[in-house]
Design goal:
The protein is of the alpha/beta class. The chain has a domain at 3-161 and 238-255: Creatininase (Rossmann fold), CATH 3.40.50. Helix content is 39%, strand content 11%. It has 7 helices and 7 strands, in the order E-H-E-E-H-E-E-H-E-H-E-H-H-H. A 5-stranded parallel β-sheet has the order 1-4-2-6-7, sandwiched between helices. Strands 3-5 form a two-stranded antiparallel sheet. Helix 4 links the parallel strand 6 (111-116) and strand 7. The model has no long low-confidence stretch (mean pLDDT 95).
Length: 256
């Protein structure tokens, strides 16, 4: 196999893999996902997409060599503490990512890819990657899994109005496909919240707007999840996995 798990390798195997391979770090969170999804939804979904992508690559004639790290299960989730979350501050998450990247470089890796599963991590992850590449001889890539789709996905790219959302149609569909036993069903219908939260519906394109108490006001979910569908969720997962597999191949080709 060209893909392996860091946890299962000896230190000599880790060193050898670092000479030519890509270290891949999934990053998730532990936070409220309304009343029907588990706290670890973001971590479970990013792991699912990563593992599906690596399985696709492993079926190719000459796949890139990838070492998959254990997922970082905690992220930046202070906006979910009104209900329940295990949150790292932005500074702490940035420092953790910096330490992990530094450890990988010290262990011999010169190529690292970070795949994120939680919206609150995105800006912190990208800044950490940019800052680290300024001081270390390394090529680092970063992405959030929901942004990646294969060109042929068409309608299965998702509903842009609720993708990724939070504890809504998109995430619930994916969880019904990946971990149906963890979804509390039936998922209750949710009446539209008026006015819609500004963080999800800014009053002007290009604005980022946050207002105190918005997440609690919308009961911890961005949209109605009652129409979530496991079959559609499976296709959405496969589309993101194909997109991630293509991204890994492209990164491999560009960073050798």
């Amino acid at each position: 196999m060209s893909q392996s798990r860091l946890t299962e390798l000896t230190w000599r195997e880790v060193r050898r893999a670092g000479e030519r391979g890509i270290a891949l770090l999934p990053v998730g969170s532990q936070e409220q996902h309304a009343g029907h999804l588990p706290m670890g939804t973001d971590t479970l979904l990013v792991e699912e997409v990563v593992d599906r992508a690596l399985a696709l690559l492993d079926r190719e004639p000459a796949p890139p060599e990838v070492v998959r790290l254990p997922a970082l299960p905690f992220g930046h989730s202070p906006h979910h503490l009104f209900a329940a979350a295990v949150s790292l501050s932005a500074a702490t998450l940035g420092a953790v990512l910096d330490d992990v990247l530094d450890s990988l470089v010290t262990s011999g890796y010169r190529r690292v890819m970070v795949v994120n599963g939680h919206g609150g991590n995105d800006e912190i992850m990208r800044l950490a990657v940019k800052r680290f590449a300024l001081r270390a001889r390394v090529t680092v890539a970063a992405c959030s899994y929901w942004t990646l789709t294969a060109d042929e996905d068409g309608d299965e790219a998702g509903r842009p109005d609720v993708t990724p959302g939070h504890a809504g149609w998109f995430e619930t569909s994916l969880m019904l496909a990946a971990h149906p036993e963890l979804v509390h069903t039936p998922v209750p219908a949710r009446a539209p919240v008026q006015p819609p939260p500004l963080f999800d519906h800014p009053p002007h394109p290009g604005l980022t707007v946050e207002r105190h108490g918005e997440w609690e006001r919308v009961d911890g979910a961005t949209d109605d999840a009652s129409g979530a569908d496991a079959d559609r969720g499976g296709r959405l997962l496969d589309g993101r996995a194909r997109g991630l597999a293509r991204a890994i191949r492209a990164f491999d080709a560009a960073s050798r």
